[in-house]
Write a structure and sequence with these properties.
This protein has nine helices and eight strands. Helix content is 49%, strand content 14%. It is of the alpha+beta class. The two termini are 12 Å apart. The model is unreliable at 346-365 (pLDDT under 50). The radius of gyration is 34 Å and the shape is elongated. Helix 1 runs antiparallel to helix 8 and helix 4 (117-154) packs antiparallel against helix 7.
Length: 381
């Protein structure tokens, strides 16, 4: 499974024994794989400041998760022709996401634990905000290029009635630079090819004999040329329509055709040039954002544990990876049973604080006697 439960319980003897019981039961019943989750000793500050950080970290957690999901989706969109290789590009510090989470170590160089908690949170906020700003600008430029290219490529798709003809026709198909003559393009249904050959010269006066030629076909019909005098264009179109032949409005313009082909070539080249740098940026910054997100989870566990269990700081954090979706209910029952002795103490602690702490609302469906946070690695679900 791609989800984890990050919990903590007080670090006294009674609760360490409870953790041992939990490990024994979950292992024996094959409910989850459990590992210790190391969190450094931070500067606590005041309880009031922790309450404020609790709210701030809750919002930052949501923002970070949303950001990495958007980045993962951007990798999918950029790797449109190699989606099977997406997972190997979504790494954290060079390892897969599960390995990073299960072997998490606090990065003291990036986020010094000796700094005040507010400073650490501020560093994380600024880092993620900058990544989001860059993500928006880089993906917007790439998506605009991609859209323009798709729109141009769409013109060469479809049937003969709608697609561009510039990549089908050639200069030799037309009478050009004539004061009196013009070459038209006519779409003829396949069953009517014989009728067209027999009648096109007589659809109007002044049609050049033997001037028709089939230059392209699709499933429905063919594209024929026909040359006639300019003065009978309207009459020829009317008669052609009556016989279910369709004159395509197209006039050969060599400069326009050249411009269109050059534009397509330029867009293809630009997309190819931007692909590599954008994918590399996404890989690097996805890793940075994911690492920041797990650090935020660690901070939330620390702050909520201090608010729940009080001072001095003494708690043990554990990471649980449920083995099966169907076993999560049983795993929850085991946890609530093992730590039920915390319920009255924890509930009283929250009530005495006279504040609403995010994630600690005392409702039957989301209150747990232990500190609990969810980590979902199903970023592309």
């Amino acid at each position: 499974m791609s989800e984890f439960w990050l919990i903590s319980a007080p670090g006294d003897k009674e609760n360490l024994q409870a953790l041992e019981r939990m490990n024994a039961v979950t292992s024996k019943s094959n409910l989850s794989y459990n590992t210790k989750f190391s969190i450094p000793d931070f500067k606590v500050g005041t309880l009031d400041s922790l309450v404020g950080l609790s709210d701030e970290l809750g919002k930052l957690d949501t923002f970070a998760e949303s950001l990495i999901k958007r980045m993962a989706q951007s990798v999918v969109e950029v790797m449109e022709d190699a989606k099977g290789k997406v997972p190997e590009n979504l790494l954290a510090n060079g390892v897969d996401l599960t390995s990073f989470v299960t072997h998490f170590e606090w990065d003291m160089a990036k986020y010094p634990a000796k700094q005040p908690l507010a400073s650490v949170v501020d560093t994380l906020e600024k880092q993620l905000a900058q990544i989001e700003t860059d993500l928006k600008s880089r993906t917007a430029a790439y998506n605009t290029l991609k859209t323009n290219l798709e729109n141009l490529e769409k013109k060469s798709m479809g049937n003969l009635f709608t697609r561009t003809l510039s990549d089908i026709v050639s200069k030799e198909d037309f009478v050009l630079d004539s004061e009196y003559l013009i070459t038209l393009l006519v779409i003829v249904p396949k069953p009517s090819y014989t009728q067209w050959q027999k009648t096109y010269e007589s659809l109007s006066d002044m049609v050049v004999p033997r001037s028709t030629k089939l230059i392209a076909e699709d499933n429905e019909g063919g594209l024929f040329t026909v040359t006639l005098f300019r003065k009978v264009i309207d009459d020829f179109k009317t008669k052609a329509k009556e016989n279910k032949f369709t004159v395509r409005e197209f006039y050969y313009d060599e400069k326009e055709i050249k411009r269109e082909r050059e534009e397509l070539s330029r867009l293809l080249s630009d997309k190819k040039q931007q692909y590599g740098p954008l994918l590399r940026w996404l890989k690097v910054n996805f890793s940075e954002a994911f690492i920041a997100w797990i650090h935020i989870k660690a901070l939330r566990v620390f702050v909520e544990s201090v608010l729940r269990y009080g001072l001095p700081v003494n708690f043990q954090a554990v990471l649980l990876q449920p083995h099966k979706k169907s076993s999560t209910k049983r795993l929850r029952e085991v946890l609530n049973s093992v730590f039920r002795h915390l319920d009255q103490v924890a509930a009283a602690s929250v009530l005495d604080a006279s504040v609403e702490i995010p994630g600690l609302q005392l409702s039957s469906h989301d209150y747990f006697p232990y500190v609990y946070f969810h980590i979902d690695l199903g970023l592309l679900d």
